[in-house]
Amino acid sequence: MKKNRWLLAALLLSCACAARIAPPTTAAVGAPDAQKACANHLSRFVDEKGRMNFRGMAESPSDLETYLAWVAKTSPESAPQLFPTPESKLAYYINTYNAVAMYNIIKSNFPPDLDKVKVTFFYKNRFEVGSRYISLYDLENKVIRPIGDPRVHVALNCMARGCPRLPREPFEAEKLDAQLDQQAKEFYNEKRNVDPQPDKQTVRLSQILQFYTEDFTKKSPSLIAYVNQYREEKIPAGWKVEFIPYDWALNAQ
Question: Do residues 138 and 221 both lie within one domain?
């Protein structure tokens, strides 16, 4: 991953300034009830365009808190018997990242622009996942990305407008492959993420593809080749690639 200057600064500051965000003090539930709570939360507070009602979440947090209280003590590392397949592990981590990001927004007092709070939001704030505290940055880059599926980048959501659309239902092990393919098809066929400019023989791509180029090109010869796997209208291989500046504004309703 190519690191911007803010990223390097964040790495220097994160260890010295880490802040543990205590998990919700909600009564313990089992995996089925936690999954149900996650599904209820998404259906209530995420609209069809993937925008979040963060004020509503803060006023009625019970489902999110139920899920995160379960996450705090349960993970593929702490309870491997609950996650017997690679799909069950990956679905857990995607759902957990997205839920922690929502909780982070609430605990950060609804920052309107994540660009201004990157160090705190991604590095400093640490959340309990499977009985250990971890930042969003480490959860993504040390746990999820090493799994090796670049489709996670159209499923993980840091709650900014530049992110892929957040579905109104959680990811599930039994249908994870289909869900990730659907997310990829939606993302790479949306003009805000892939903008062909035939007159210039150029395609403008979401900056997500610049951030994580190495993930997308491990098995594809180029970013265009990767994108074309999911595109209805293919991009010519020889076109120039430019990147659409990432929109860090909060993706609130």
Answer: no
Range of the domain at 221: 191-244
Kindly state whether residues 96 and 199 are assigned to the same domain: no
- Please name every residue paired with 160 in a beta bridge, in sequence order, or none if there are none: 250
Whole-number pLDDT of residue 3: 47
Note the pTM of the prediction, 2 decimals: 0.92
Q: What sign does the CA torsion over 86, 89, 93, 99 have? A: positive
Average pLDDT, the chain: 94
Q: What is the pLDDT of residues 61-117, one digit of tens each?
A: 999 999 999 999 999 999 999 999 999 999 999 999 999 999 999 999 999 999 999
The vertex-249 CA angle with 108 and 231, nearest 5°, equals: 125
Answer yes or no: is pLDDT of 1 > 60: no
Residue 210, CA distances (Å) to 103, 170, 222, 234 in order: 27, 27, 12, 19
Q: Which of 186, 158, 187 is nearest to 247 (CA)?
A: 158
